[in-house]
Amino acid sequence: MYRALLSAALFITAANSQPLQSPEVSPDHRVTFRISAPKASEVTLAGDWLGAAPPPKLTRDDHGIWSLTLGPLEPSIYIYSFTVDGVSIPDPVNPRIKLRARTSASLLEVKDDTPAFWEPRDVPHGAVEINWEHAKTISGETRAIWIYTPPGYAKSTRRYPVLYLLHGSNDTAAGWTTAGNANFVLDNLLAAGKLVPMIVVMPFGHATPFGVPVPPGGVTNDALFEDYLLKDVIPTVESHYRVAPGRDRRAIAGLSMGGGQSLRIGLGHLDLFSSVASFSGAIPGDFETRFASILKDPNTTNQNLKTLWIGCGRQDSLFPRSSNLADLLTKYQIHHVFHPTDGVHNYTVWRKYLAEFAPLLFR
Fold first, then answer.
1. How far apart are CA 279 and CA 252, in angstroms?
2. Among 105, 133, 252, 358, which is disulfide-ready with 164 (CB 3.0 to 4.6 Å)?
3. Which 3 state secondary structure label does DSSP give 4?
4. pLDDT tens for residues 213-272?
5. Structure pTM?
6. How many other CB atoms sit within 10 Å of the CB of residue 239?
7. Angle at 232 between CA 255 and CA 148, to 5 degrees
């Protein structure tokens, strides 16, 4: 009896000493999340694939380990975090951190047997560089710009067209690379012969401090960011990289907040941009009045715009805004592409949109 009890105790001790694994992805794409919080009274999970669904609760075992299994999930890279007794934290044992403008989270990757369009493949790869610049328009602040250059750029003498690719609210300049895998999406499209080689510029979209209300009479984030992009980012890029000149070789696109910024800046400066896209965009509420001049002159607008592309997931809370914008553009006979899909407000959708939109550029 003593030996049996001792063996059982040693087994339990060994089991409890195993490193905690979270997240754990099973072959059927179900995912188990775990966190050790012996003194917590409630733990819930936040995940960008959940949409408007309430945060699911984790279950606590006798050793203070909370766990939850969900899925199967579509192969993708997801953003998630735990809320422990009201405090949001990233997964303590997951080294893949998603930094944001405020707070941080964790990244979960669900792979399939065949590498997806967003995964690194055995193809030539471009480079992603972090450029630090002194932003004259933002009180001399030193800010990072992430820039993708296509394979062969360093050995080439050619000049390349440029796509300015903007992130969403509470994200950073790193978002399109670390969560969106934009560089691998572009590498794979290039290797398949579906893409014109291009430089992709990813600046930080919060020109004012995120989460801080604009004081009365103050400059809004969108207005200051537009100034920053036009007067700091574009001149910096064109002075440091081999950029093809002219509006026909310049495009702008973005997701969520960045989608709204892309529309404001791109359509507001058709002398600078020939293609504009909004992915699940925060469409300006005053769009019809703001852009009355281009709406009322569809012939000139259609001549100037090579591509105006709007995509949004039907399960996204912003879907009505994109759908209404498409109806408005149709009303004024402005040529555009409206691309509604299934999906919520996350990079699973936005990677697909980048893969759809980028091949249309610079043909």
1. 11
2. 252
3. helix
4. 988 888 999 999 999 999 999 999 999 999 999 999 999 999 999 999 999 999 999 999
5. 0.93
6. 8
7. 55
pLDDT of residue 13: 38
Contacts of 142 (CB under 8 A, 6+ apart): 132, 133, 134, 135
CA-to-CA distance for 310 and 281, rounded, in angstroms? 8
> How far are the Cα atoms of 37, 46, 76 from residue 67, in angstroms, in the given order?
10, 13, 21
Contact call for residues 244 and 149 (beta carbons, < 8 A): no
Q: What is the dihedral of CA 106, 201, 223, 262, to 10 degrees?
A: -90
What is residue 17's predicted lDDT score, i.e. its pLDDT? Answer: 56
Q: What is the per-residue pLDDT across 327-340, written as a single tens digit (0 to 9) for each?
A: 999 999 999 999 99
Query: 65 phi and psi, to 5 degrees?
Result: -95, 125
What does DSSP assign to residue 216? T
Q: Are the C-beta atoms of residues 294 and 271 closer than 8 Å to each other?
A: no
Amino acid identity, position 104: S
For the chain, residues with pLDDT lower than 70 are: 1-17
How far is Cα 55 from Cα 32, in angstroms, rounded to an integer? 15
> Closest by alpha carbon to 198, among 168, 236, 237, 235?
237
| Residue 72, preceding peptide bond in cis (omega within 30° of 0) | yes
Spatial contact of 31 and 23, defined as CB atoms under 8 Å apart: yes
Question: CA-CA distance, 289 to 4, in Å (whole number)?
Answer: 80
Please state, in angstroms and rounded to a whole number, the distance separating the CA atoms of residues 22 and 334: 49
CB 280 within 8 A of CB 197: no
- Tokens representing 329 are 């553009």
Under a CB-based contact definition with an 8 Å cutoff, are residues 335 and 308 in contact? Answer: yes
Whether 275 and 269 have beta carbons less than 8 Å apart is answered as: no
Closest CA to 332 of 358, 363, 308, 362: 308
* pLDDT value for 217: 86
Residue the block writes with tokens 């103050």: 218
With residue 308 as reference, give the H or E element that holds it: strand 307-313
